[in-house]
Amino acid sequence: MEDSAIPPAVLTRLREVCLALPEAHEEPAWVGTRWRVRKRTFAHVVAVEEGSSSVFARVSAADGPATVVTFRSTGEEMRALRDAGPPFFYAGWGRDVLGMFLDGDTDWTEVGELLTESYCVLAPKKLRALVDRPHLPGDD
């Protein structure tokens, strides 16, 4: 069941990015919607309600209604995003999981790049090779 509090336009944009990746699929999560490659989640969008005590509300420090997407990152990019502050935050579970607030100021090109990299962090080598992106260390 899709989380009805997630703006439909946000889901549409996330689907465009995530479902374009090889063997990626969408499924409902315990809350929100997630995208996976094989059995590994590379993106997860949730709506954080005002006054919520959910793990997403706690780690994002959302003080009102918010939409957040979590994703994977590594290396220098992960450190830079962790230190950047809003709209980014460290999720607190898994050493490589970050979150980002999605709102009217969201840079959707950046979201596309981050989610593509998140996919590549988790995808098998043969699937990563099918993704058009710059060569990064560790992709050999």
What does this protein look like?
33% of the residues lie in helices and 25% in strands. The protein contains 5 helices and 6 strands, in the order αβββαβαββαα. Helix 1 (8-18) crosses helix 4.
In terms of topology, how is this protein built?
Layout: H1 8-18, E1 24-28, E2 33-37, E3 40-48, H2 55-60, E4 66-72, H3 75-84, E5 88-90, E6 97-102, H4 108-122, H5 125-128
Antiparallel strand pairs: 1-2, 2-3, 3-4, 4-6, 5-6
Q: Oligomeric status of the shown chains?
A: single chain
- Average pLDDT score: 85
Sketch the topology as an H/E string, one letter per element: HEEEHEHEEHH
Apparent shape: globular
Low-confidence stretches: none
Please name the defining characteristics of this protein:
140 residues; alpha+beta; 6-stranded antiparallel beta sheet; 5 helices; 6 strands
Kindly summarize this structure in a few lines.
33% of the residues lie in helices and 25% in strands. With 140 residues, the protein is of the alpha+beta class.
